[in-house]
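Example S7 (structure tokens).
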């Protein structure tokens, strides 16, 4: 018997929990477009839909819908839809991810070594610019290259990139609006960053 990995199990559990919610209330709370079959939302400047029947997620690709049930997408979307605080609003100021949770997940949020995406952008920074523009980003100052991106509702996320040199490795840092914890939990920010990097990779090819 094929053994499901823990990520698939957790995603499946998250879908079941989502479907147990009052989905009409979720629609009202987020002012979503919805019909009898799906809830529709914008995330990272892209269109998504979530099945009312089973919680499966799809992302619009041109005129079609492509399955988008990745672990990071699933947990991020369900946290935003089901756990965002009433009265949430963007602050218009930036914080690092660690500012929301101290040093608890420093190794996950800010690893010491450059990853393959940072090495790619060090060689070809135009690929980061292209990917960010496709996600609806606008240039921002403060780094060698930086963009503020629409994330969800009025919440924005930002990426800042610095080239490497003889002393430091290339670095891609993620910033959040200072009120991001009104929209999603600190633990979910790690998955949201994973989703962001997945979309950046997809548009950097």
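Recovered sequence:
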């Amino acid at each position: 018997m094929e053994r499901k990995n823990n990520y698939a199990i957790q995603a499946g559990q998250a879908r079941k929990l989502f479907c147990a919610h009052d989905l009409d209330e979720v629609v009202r709370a987020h002012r979503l477009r919805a019909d009898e079959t799906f809830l529709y939302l914008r995330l990272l400047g892209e269109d998504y839909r979530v099945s009312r029947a089973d919680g499966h997620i799809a992302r619009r690709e041109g005129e079609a819908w492509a399955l988008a049930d990745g672990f990071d997408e699933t947990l991020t979307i369900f946290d935003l839809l089901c756990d965002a605080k009433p009265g949430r609003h963007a602050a218009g100021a930036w914080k690092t991810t660690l500012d929301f949770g101290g040093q608890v997940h420093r190794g996950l949020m800010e690893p010491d070594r450059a990853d393959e995406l940072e090495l790619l952008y060090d060689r070809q920074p135009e690929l980061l610019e292209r990917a960010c523009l496709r996600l609806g980003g606008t240039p921002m100052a403060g780094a060698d290259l930086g963009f503020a991106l629409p994330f969800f509702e009025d919440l924005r996320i930002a990426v800042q990139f610095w080239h490497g040199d003889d002393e430091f490795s290339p670095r891609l840092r993620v910033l959040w609006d200072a009120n991001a914890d009104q929209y999603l939990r600190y633990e979910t920010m790690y998955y949201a960053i994973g989703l962001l990097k997945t979309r950046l990779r997809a548009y950097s090819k």
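Notes on this example. The mean pLDDT is 92.
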